[in-house]
Design brief:
By secondary structure, this protein is an alpha/beta fold. The protein has two domains: 173 residues, Alpha-Beta Barrel (Anaerobic Ribonucleotide-triphosphate Reductase Large Chain), CATH 3.20.70; 230 residues, no CATH class. Helix content is 43%, strand content 16%. The chain has a nine-stranded mixed sheet with strand order 8-7-1-2-3-4-6-10-9. It comes from Pseudomonas mangrovi. InterPro entries: UPF0210 (IPR007841).
């Protein structure tokens, strides 16, 4: 199954009639090809390039952009759309964020990707601004749900199909594909447990199974590119959860040993799964984009919420798992009283892992107002699970030495040459 057909829209480089024509054609061709190949398409989404605007000089500019995107989404049959915001750009940044916050509260189809790191640099000012944004947004909602649609991304490449860490780059329409692969892995893990396979035997079967699925979806993408004339950037085969009580990354890890997930050995098993994904994509000859890893999205996974309720997870453990997993710290409920300095420091920690390990990562926390540590969320949504609020830890940190944009020594030397 395809979780998402994510379409990158060059909204600032192409006229609206041209985009409407291309999106209409892509919709017709994708639906026809899905029916022809028997591949179910769960959602269509639109992602944009970061706006290069000064919101102080042009107030209301984001609103007009979102209004146009909303119309394009109807044409494409898209359920959601994502606007990235480049937090390296300091001019007009706060005005842009203020307008974005007002929009995301009013429009439940709008996602925001706050960009704080490239593969070579980390915006420390941007991390602080993102922290203020997330905590400020939490105070504008009764249950903290709006931050479900806000991610802070570090070194995430263009065409990443998973929201909210998505953005478009280039002056032409393009698309990428987010797959659903967890069911395949779960079936093989259950089989391995029944048959008492070795870990290597399990991984070999997993690579074979994933390669088959990736090859099938990659062929879909290439054929859709040929029929529509719109560029196919690649697929992301990440093992991602779905809150249906069955499709659980936590259960997958626990079938292979560490129980509950978060116990010692979880990092090792996660590395085995991530390695299988990389090898499968290579074997299938598939174009890849995005994460292609294991996604520990806490509130989207029944098993992860159970582990969190048992206090088997913490921000520190999730940060450690980020060294070998897919998307970083994702969908974690915390008290809205979390200090801004602590949240910005957490963002910097994950950004450091992304830059030093050369892997895309993100942070998506849900600060919950009027709830304390160990009290439960009440999100009341069928696509999310409720869980206890995670303890962000005791803050005893001195302010981190300031640098607007941080580059490690080797990257500073390259910049000076």
């Amino acid at each position: 199954m395809i979780r998402s057909l994510t379409i990158g829209v060059p909204i600032f480089d192409r006229a609206k009639p041209e985009l409407v024509q291309q999106l209409s054609r892509l919709r017709v061709e994708s639906e026809a090809l899905s029916a022809e190949l028997g591949i179910e398409l769960r959602t269509v989404r639109l992602t944009l390039p970061p706006p290069q605007v000064d919101a102080e000089a042009a107030p209301g500019v984001l609103r007009s952009i979102v209004e146009m995107v909303r119309e394009l989404a109807d044409v494409a049959g898209a359920r959601w759309y994502c606007m990235p915001i480049d937090l390296f750009a300091s001019r007009g940044r706060q005005a842009l964020l203020d307008e974005a916050q007002a929009l995301v509260v009013r429009d439940n189809k709008l996602f925001l990707n706050l960009i704080v790191a490239t593969p070579e640099a980390i915006s420390m000012d941007g991390a602080e601004a993102a922290s203020r944004f997330v905590l400020g947004l939490a105070r504008r909602s009764n249950n903290g749900i709006d931050n479900f649609r806000v991610g802070v991304s570090a070194a995430c490449p263009p065409a990443t199909p998973f929201f909210p860490f998505s953005r478009h780059e280039g002056d032409q329409l393009a698309f990428s594909i987010a797959m659903e692969t967890t069911a395949v892995a779960l079936a093989l893990a259950e089989e391995a447990r029944r048959q008492r396979l070795s870990l290597a035997e399990f991984q070999n079967r997993l690579i074979e199974g994933l390669a088959c699925e990736m090859g099938r979806v990659d062929a879909y993408g290439r054929e859709l590119e040929s029929r529509s004339g719109i560029a196919y950037r690649g697929l992301d085969g990440s093992l991602a959860p779905f809150p249906d009580g069955v499709t659980s990354v936590a259960r997958l890890v626990e079938l292979l040993g560490p129980t509950p997930v978060g116990s010692l050995g979880s990092i090792f098993i996660t590395s085995v799964l991530t390695d299988a994904l990389k090898q499968a994509a290579q074997r299938a000859g598939a174009r890849t984009v995005g994460f292609n890893g294991v996604m520990y999205s806490v509130l989207e996974d029944n098993g992860l919420t159970e582990a969190n309720n048992l206090r088997a997870l913490s921000l520190e453990k999730l940060a450690a798992l980020s060294t070998v997993c897919g998307c970083g710290i994702d969908m974690v409920p915390v008290p809205a009283t979390m200090f801004g300095e602590d949240l910005s420091a957490l963002i910097l920690d994950i950004a450091a892992l992304a830059v030093r390990l050369r892997k895309p990562l993100g942070v998506r926390l849900l600060p919950i107002p009027n709830r304390a540590v160990n009290e439960y969320t009440q999100l009341n949504l069928d696509f999310l699970c409720d869980s206890r609020l995670m303890d962000p830890g005791i803050s005893a940190s001195k302010p981190i030495l300031c640098e607007p944009v941080w580059r490690y020594a080797a990257d500073r030397q390259k910049e000076q040459q």
